[in-house]
Design a protein that fits this description.
7 helices, mainly alpha, 0% strand
Length: 137
């Protein structure tokens, strides 16, 4: 235990660095929607997106995702274009086309560019539920 007394300061500093790194990662995840630690909304959206691959649930999932989409749903749908099963990818594309009123096909980079333009406000924003057209955020 002598070593513990000797290195208490260094150990404490190391733990502080780890703590601040984790805290910074969580803050960046929340701000940039990285998906490292999904929020309850992201978890719910991922469940709905997974339902796009289930023929019995596909219609309801599509309707909910399109009618109640938000700034979290669009990136999740784009992510599903990259990583989902073929049925999920097709459903995600269908939702995005209906939301964006544009069709970028299966081109994930084109959808990412659309989202970046939307998110930066350089694109006419589709209306969100309950807001007049173009209100966007």
């Amino acid at each position: 235990m002598e070593w513990l007394k000797r290195y208490t300061g260094e150990i404490s500093l190391g733990l502080l660095v780890v703590y601040l790194t984790v805290l910074g990662t969580l803050a960046a995840d929340r701000a940039l929607h990285l998906g490292i630690v999904p929020t309850p909304l992201e978890k719910e959206l991922r469940g709905l997106i997974a339902d796009l691959g289930n023929p019995a649930k596909r219609g309801d999932a599509h309707r909910i995702l399109v009618s109640h989409w938000n700034e979290v749903a669009a990136p999740e749908l784009i992510r599903a274009l990259e990583k989902g099963s073929p049925d999920v990818r097709a459903g995600a594309k269908s939702c995005l086309v209906e939301i964006a009123k544009e069709d970028h096909g299966d081109d994930v980079s084109a959808w990412k560019s659309w989202w970046k333009a939307y998110d930066q406000g350089t694109l006419g924003k589709p209306s969100l539920p309950g807001l007049p057209s173009g209100s966007g955020k």
